[in-house]
Design a protein that fits this description.
Largest sheet: 16 strands, antiparallel
Shape: globular
Number of strands: 20
Structural class: mainly beta
Distance between the termini: 31 Å
Helix content: under 10%
Order of helices and strands: EEEEEEEHEEEEEEEEEEHEEE
Amino acid sequence: TQSLWSNQSPIEGSLHYEVESTQENHLIPLYKSVPDGTGDVVYDSIVDNYIHNVDRGDFKLLGFGRDSNASNLFLRKVKTNIHLRSVLSNLLGIKKGFLAYSRVGLQVDLSTADSSDSHRWLPEYNESNFNQLYDASIERTLYYVLEKDKNRFSIESNQLHSKTNGFASANSSLIKYELGGRYFVLPIVSIQPKYINQSQHQDGSGFWKFDQWIPMIEYEFYSYFYLTPFLSIKKGEYSKSQESLQFYSQAEGLKFRYQRSNLGLSSFEFKRVKLNTGEYPYELSNGYAPGENFEFKNYSSIRFGQWFYIDSDFLMVWGQNQKAWSRLMLSARAVF
């Protein structure tokens, strides 16, 4: 890793480069079935795949094992991260006006795992060649930041193309305001067609795509209380064989959080989600049933003394076509 940052330079940057050669057995994820709702992995029978980091899962990931029946797999892994930015007051010599408090930046992340070329020294940057590789991704992020005192305005545009789990392309934009400690967010996310590998889909073909709009405002009052109303609209399409289904969901809700460093925190969230009729992959429906769904969450972490905490995590879901369901998880931890 080489850092080129300098507070006085008109253009600053950093470069990270990593190369690795391995010869190993295939790694296979190992899952354990747990009582409904207590896991963080769910099996989606529509696409014949496991979905991670969910609230109401019925599996847990135990780790990875090696397939002793498979031959060793050679992989040449190359990763590169390039980050360039410019403080416009240094670049243009401007000392007054909004440009004096502005900076722009570009970050590019490339990752390639190649099983056929033992002499590869650079990651693949041409997306049309991803088909020939074991694994590959390219991500580009362009941003603008205006910051003065406690006020901050930023715009970020991100493009991702990946072959990690099927083929996925995504374009997203994020506009964020922070005014005197309070922030206002307007993310506009557009997910382009996400293709599922044939081996991961029951009938050997299929894809989905969706666009999502999520405006959100957080208001801080009395230093410790945070109130966040939010809205999410997701519209998309799911296709398999000769069938094409139109997908639409709308969610609105309210989050409330109380936080103090010497006491802990407690957050509450109430959400209503409405889906149109149809059977969709988990990544579209997020596990909600068609019709109206309601969800209530509470997470609390109470501090006792300097090192000891007791945490509680409560989730309740009910709906028009979904039986009421709830889960409460308690834990204690010590931090030294």
